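As described in the Methods, two query proteins were run sequentially through the folding procedure within a single session, without resetting any intermediate state between them. The first query and its resulting structure tokens are shown here.
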Amino acid sequence: MPPERRPFHKLVWVPVGRGALEYGASRVSVGKDELLLVPPGQVHRFTDDPTAPLTLVMAYFSEEIVARSTPLHLLLPALRSRFPDPFPQVKLNSYRRGAVRNTFKRMLAEQPREDACATAMLHAGLLELLVIFFRSEPARKSVAPSREQALEGTLEYIDDLFHTEIRVKDLADMCSISSRRYSYLFKQRTGKTVVQYLNDKRVAYAQERLRETGQIMYAAVAAGFGDAAHFYRVFKRSTGQTPGQYLESYMSQESTISEDRQHAP
């Protein structure tokens, strides 16, 4: 495609193919599972590798939109500071690749509607994409082998979505390996089975909600436990206490601390 210069920011996702981004006398490789940010006013062009032409999915946003949006106004300078290259470029792990794909699909579905709700959804989608960009690694940074990178992506997936239903098969599919092989690699990486790792995340989150609200069932549901019996069983196995005993112990400690403060000289 010919060189172009646009008056707006351009966020580019590469779902398929490989090629290059050319600007001035510079040329950088681009490929599958990468995100790039093209600043406004920069002359550039994408070129294809003839053996694997690029497919590009893009989101455009103007400086006017940035000026009117506090989150964008805060996020873009932070992103430029973290990625000082003229055309920042990051590599997506398996989790973030799925998140980018789903976000773009939602944005494409909302775009034709042209109403207040669609505008809000497009804005939310853009923010989500930029946060994913910010939290990803520079594309040119040396990375672990692809399978290990995929495994790291599933750990991030669990850390973000532990409160939802998560199956070993789905995690293994993200790495394109069998469930048995994934379980083996997962335990090598974490020292725990997937169920142990997931339950530890859920119990830790439930403890936070118990301390915050004092509501046992709310903590169970918020942490992703489907029923009370399962929650009580997993919680006691992990902490040595039932949720009620944990809450009672915490409240007793808080009461002691409060009394100590009252009697302090």
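Immediately afterward, the second query was submitted; its sequence and tokens are:
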Amino acid sequence: MKKVALGIDIGGTNTDMAFVDREGNFLAEGHLPTSNFPEPEVFVAVLAEKVKLMKKTMGEPIEIIGIGIGAPMGNINKGTIEEPADLAWKGITPLADLLREHIDLPILVTNDANAAAVGEMIYGSAKGMKNFAVITLGTGLGSGIVIDGKLLYGQDGFAGEVGHTIVRPGSTNRECGCGRVGCLETYVSATGLKRTLFKIISDSILESELRDLSFNDMTSLNIAEAAERGDVLAKRAFEHTGEMLGLKLADLVAHTNPEAIFLFGGLALAKGLIMEPTLRAFHGNLLSIYRGKVKLLPSGLNSKNSAVLGASALAWDQFGSVEANT
């Protein structure tokens, strides 16, 4: 019987999942719109049914060794999601306990960026590295930090929240879903990029193909495509976003002294649009003792479901030698 891990990536908009073998091959996949479920109990029940249907579609018997889940503000110590800025679920959601009511398997819940970091270490470009960080650029900004070969969790599982460090203090700056003002992810994320572009458009008289799009209809992909076609204001939005990201990554180096920092997620797929201004600001703000020693790289997990691959890597890392019954 073939052994697989179930990897689940819970994002602010969508949830993706897959059965993944030890070599990182996807054997079956499923998707669920997270934003359609304001109640986590309903979401978990539908998720469990989706998993069971996926299993039925498999052409051979499988043994699920465990479940790895990456989610915003996932607490590895408790199996909970706590006060997530990018989900509709407020307070503390006992995600692992809710899922165990439907599926009797070992379950590990952690920050989505921590899952990405494990995936990078096992399947990506961080193989052999003991000190690195992964920055996830999606609806929000997440960060997974590895020190001496181990994920950094801290006292209660929430170490390394780079996205919720303040870059613009003061009550007149951008409100964040975490309840504070001026967090990095309000500027550096898919949503932050949109907010930046709307501010740039309102302050400029230059033409832009994006002027007639509403905020809700616009996506970061729209902005990237317009920038590639030469839209000046779209380019400015990426420049501003990259400058802020590079500045904060230089601070991250001072705190953690990594060998490399990997950019992961939808916004990172804009490649040169985001990478070039980020690199300029990064190198321009690095303390001299770190210059030339830290690589800033795109993630080595290139598939569209690389976040799921990272989540499954958590399960393989923790439960790979466990015999599970399903």
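The chain has a mean pLDDT of 91. We note this only descriptively and draw no conclusion about the first query from it.
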